[in-house]
From TrEMBL:
Highest taxon of source: Bacteria
UniProt organism field: Selenomonas montiformis
Protein name: Site-specific integrase
UniProt keyword DNA-binding present: yes
Ranges for domain Core-binding (CB): 64-147
Amino acid sequence: MAKTRTLHVYSYEKDGSTLYYVTFYCKQWDGTNKKIKKMGFTRQADAARYEQDYRDRLAGSPAMTFAALCDRFLDDYRHHVRESTYLTTRNLLVTYLFPAFGDKTLTELTPVMIREWQNRFISSRHYQPTTLSKIHASLVITLNYACKYFGLAKNPATIAGGMGSQRPAHDMQYWTREQFARFILSGLKPEYIAMFSTLFWTGCRSGECLALTAGDIDLEQGIMGINKTMTKTEHGYIVGPPKTAHSRRKVSLPRPLVMILADWIRRTDARSNDRLFTRDRTTYAAALKQHAQQVGLSAIRLHDLRHSHASMLINLGTPPKVYKNAWAMRRYK
């Protein structure tokens, strides 16, 4: 018969030896009371310490499931990042991480478990290195949140190491000035000429270009102000602050681009707060691909026109300090 030694700790006989077990009720992270029982201690103090350690861990909630952690993390994360960043991270968690780890408690997640999961992803060869890197980064920041706020001792994803690469496996795509000239004379509509010329000659991001208004263009001074961007949210596309504070800048416009934008503003009769380019990003990307093929050029993305601008400046021998402002980048490789 079990004998009480201290609160919640009891002794029992087994094979002629006196052993100890501890049993207690403890409120879980989800509010329910759970009965905990652990047997086989050779010392009374070890059994009592087990209960204390268990309660200490639960106070930080490392016993919650990964799915529950993600709910808490995403609810907090959305208040600290751009909505597009939040949506991308949420999509990665729901699509790739919930199925693998959703029902696991944080204490069950080990570096070995995560490493084996990574190896399955890598060996499947269904994902680009950049995609693998983003999936792993989402797991790391989620578990970092658990380490900081919910008592997880170490981040098993960090210990496991990364997968994939932050840089695309293919070379950066770009057009030369000569190739862009062939493209722009391929029979494009005036709107597309204005859009693609702005991307190529200023190096602005596609979201920044989509958010441009007539008031952002100073035709007399040949200056374009970039102070906002177009991003995709749960409620569609919205205009909001630029990617970073450093992204707010003024860019000098070459004379041909001033003339192109002046013509487009005149055609649309755009007022100060009217957006110059009102189609969605997909439509512009399709036109870029279609007309590139018509003149025998390799298809590139809208963002690659930004690469083309940088390549042009570098080939012209432009000092990095000069084009750093136009590109709104802090580092150059």
